[in-house]
Design brief:
Oligomer: single chain
Distance between the termini: 71 Å
Radius of gyration: 25 Å
Low-confidence stretches: none
Strand order of the largest sheet: 1-2-4-3
Shape: globular
Number of helices: 23
Strand content: 5-15%
Order of helices and strands: HHHHHHHHHHHHHHHHHHHHEHEEEHH
Length: 502
Amino acid sequence: MLPTDEAVHRRAFFQILAISTVIKLWLAAVIPFTGDEAYFYVWGMYPDWGGYYDHPPMAGWWLWALQKVSTSTLWLRMPAILLWVAIAWGMMDALRRLQPHHAANAWALGSLFLALPFTWSLNLITTDTPLILFLFFSGYAFLRGEQSDDLRWQVAAGVLLGLALLSKYFAGLLAIAYAVYFIPRGRRAWIKLLVIALCALPFMLLNLTWNASHCWNNILFNLYNRNAGSQFTASHLAIYLLMMMYLLTPWTGWRLMRTGAVRGYWPLVSLFAIPFALFLLLSFYKTIGLHWVLAFLPFFFLWAAVSLDKETLIAHRRWNLWLGLPHLVALSLLAHLPSSTFEGAKLHTDIIMHREPKSLVSILQEDLPAGGTIMTQSYSLASLLTYHGDRYVPVFGGGSFHARFDDNITDFRAFAGKPIRIVSTRIIDPAGLEPYFDSVTITQRTLDGARFWVADGQGFRFEPYHAQVLAKIATSYYRLPSFLPLHGCRFLEQYGFESQHR
């Protein structure tokens, strides 16, 4: 029979677990599929062996497997729904091993963590889902290895780090944290670091091999295209600091500062302090997204549980529950307020697009010319129409440096002479399309007060499109540094640009 104190905290944990799981399932069912999720869904429709335009392949692999069972929104989001629950159990197990004589603290940590708003409100399936899972359990294996000095845990840490690297390049921050921790600690530590590196290396080599035969897309996007024009802005730093105050919660962060806990368990501290410090430096030049730092937050709260007493954890859990209340109200309103409530606001069209996608697909397909193809000028809208319309929707025009997966799917030579219907949530200027068609007609389609512009182009002219649009895309997004060995680039090859972009 459990001791009374432990039984109380165990019961509180399962109560919060049950309530938060119900909330997560409800939110996953009522919040519409987002443009980002639809974009990654398209990855699953076209699985690749080593990567996609902007990220390594793991999210696409997961969504390919999920689609084999069902394409319902709730099912596709199930990994995200279960993610933080799995991590909470891992955190609790780690704490029991770090503090074997304080079993009740583990239950208090688990309930505190599941009470945090981001653990129950973020249920979207994105590239961050596998990243967070593999990063946490890599760190968990690292901590186990530091406790037992068993190299098998370093093997596990390296394999899981490799899987995280196949999810998103931010996993490299954990690799840096391992290096910073091990390098000053002598020969045995160097061996551990080498084991982790060698076990992670095959996964990185897989992605690099794919890059060498796919235009070095991941490298160009993550190191060049997405960082073009970055410059120092004080507001980025301020946003990062405010965001971290919110995520770490003022009460937990302030209490840890007062107790001087940073002098505590260094293997654990290194897992979040080094990535957070690197994000801080990066924030001088870029806006740090909330989702960038999520993977490292479990280590912070595990450290908090190591450093703070049980009574403090319980108080912080209560404050986390109060913090979640306005989030729950806001999400409820967003999910259930009538669409007409937002009429006149900028986001009204987006709300209609996400809430009534089937109806939108239907009105956009009305009177589609024989042999015609629907396209959009937006990757987000194209992905949503693909998911809800069960037919792939290409992107017409230059698009942006984000989400250029369509470059490797669509061959515009196949549309020469055919009709194309271009859809946009913004006014379409016919003068911008006339060079590429024999004729262009602009109309509007309305759905619940939201307006969508439709350009029907007859007789697509591939030659001017190749010279003015595709050539600009090649120059903007496919100009490869000469030191990168290239063994294939579909976009450049199919349009005859390969000799011009080295």
